[in-house]
Amino acid sequence: MITLVAYYSVYGNTKQIAEAMASVFEKKGTVRLVTIDKITEADFNQVDLVVMGAPTIGANIPEAARTALAKLPQQIMPATNIAAFDTSIKWWPKRFTAARRLAKKLGNLGGKMILPPMNYYVKGTEGPLLAGEIERAKAWAETILGQIKA
After folding, report:
1. What pLDDT sits at residue 19?
2. Distance in angstroms (rounded) separating the CA atoms of residues 118 and 24
3. pLDDT tens for each residue of the chain, 150 residues long
4. 3-state secondary structure of 32
5. Which of 49, 116, 133, 145 would give a disulfide with 129, using CB separation of 3.0 to 4.6 Å?
6. Which pLDDT value is given to residue 56?
């Protein structure tokens, strides 16, 4: 199985979550870990799963990540399994998170959402991650793998 884990990180929190998930996916195959702002069409070649994350900033995906995703061709990953996550403040309304917006963008690129978007929480506006979030990320990655087998 080939998994693309793409992330955008401002304070390092989203990167930590992405790396934790990648460590789980590596047990089942090849992982491509890339930052969204440097993502290319080639990164999507022959992938079975795309997991993407970004921090919620101003109720949205950071501008650099939005710009990079907008450059990708529509339907670049037809019927590819996808999952989206973000890092945000715990009290932030879920309807205004980067994960929900990423899920929609990934769907527009042809992906098939296998689980609802996931939120990971930081202390304050810059972090660090709250206790237990790395473990939750690994557990979610295991759940994703279970959904693919189902």
Report:
1. 98
2. 16
3. 999 999 999 999 999 999 999 999 999 999 999 999 999 999 999 999 999 999 999 889 999 999 999 999 989 999 999 999 999 998 776 778 999 999 999 999 999 999 999 999 999 989 999 999 999 999 999 999 999 875
4. strand
5. 133
6. 93
Q: Which helix (H) or strand (E) holds 120?
A: strand 118-122
Return the ∠ at Cα 50 (arms to 46 and 53), rounded to 5°.
Answer: 150
Structural domains for the chain:
2-149 (3.40.50.360)
* Cα(74)–Cα(110) distance, integer angstroms: 7
DSSP strand pairing (30-35 vs 49-55): unpaired
Distance CA(84)–CA(52), nearest Å, equals 5
Count of Cβ atoms closer than 10 Å to residue 122 Cβ: 20
pTM of the model: 0.95
Phi and psi angles of residue 131, each rounded to the nearest 5 degrees, phi first: -55, 135
Query: What's the token pair of residue 41?
Result: 């069409």
Angle (CA) 75 81 87, round 5°: 100
CA 24, distance to chain mean position in Å, is: 14
